[in-house]
Amino acid sequence: MLTPREMPGTPAEGAGPGFREPVTAMPAAAMPAAAMPVTAMPAAAGSTAPERHPLSMIVWCVGVLFSCTAGQFRTALPARTALRTSCAELLDGMLGR
Question: Going residue by residue through the chain (97 aa), what tens digit of pLDDT does each one get?
């Protein structure tokens, strides 16, 4: 059996030894502010952990999408007000309100 790297015509072919290596982030202190738009907005809003909170928002969005396509809400979508309340609760927790 061939691995994806060994299969001809795949994007991994010839991609080099770092193709499947984990991506490591530069420490936030070493990045210029303009290079961190994902963390700049939560920081400006008063986030207590602007490096971590964008991922929490993305995970919340993915969870809602999954829940509405294959989970408990696949037959009856949540109301817009329920989604707004849930998002507001998440943001309130992040911003220490």
Answer: 556 565 555 554 455 555 555 555 556 566 555 555 788 888 888 898 888 898 999 999 999 999 988 988 888 888 999 999 999 999 999 888 8
**Residue 95, domain member (yes or no):** yes
Cβ count within 10 A of residue 47: 19
Report yes or no on 87 lying in a domain: yes
Total domains in the fold of the chain: 1
Parent domain of 97: 55-97
